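Me: I'm a chemist; would you kindly supply a protein sequence with its structure tokens?

Assistant:
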Amino acid sequence: MTGLELMQAMLDGRIPMPPMADTVPMQGLSVEAGKILFSARADARHLNPLGRVHGGFAATVLDSVTACAIHTLLGPGESYATVDLNVKMLRPVPVDTALLAEGSVINISRSIAVSEARLKDENGKLYAYASATCMLMRNDG
């Protein structure tokens, strides 16, 4: 399957989401070439010693959608690895609140892809922003 076909199969439930989607509750909502939308919800498992959602929650969700957006543009058997993830935490992530994580590809070449993502609530309030660079492993290279 192409990367887009694989992501569509996950969102349609034909293949399971990866185990990380249980650790950090994420569910795919929509996908197209170069873009993906997940819902995510922090719960008590994600709290730090201060009782707030750990920054790793937002970082993990944003890492997932930036990478999955890139994956939608890859051919069968091609893969990627994140080499850089830059996350800006803009406000505390709320507990037990559905958030939307939207990832989109900014640029893709033979060996490198750059994407960005936003973590927002249903009203559009921005909680975190990220950009990512992924190294691509192509079939012919």
Summary: The radius of gyration is 15 Å.
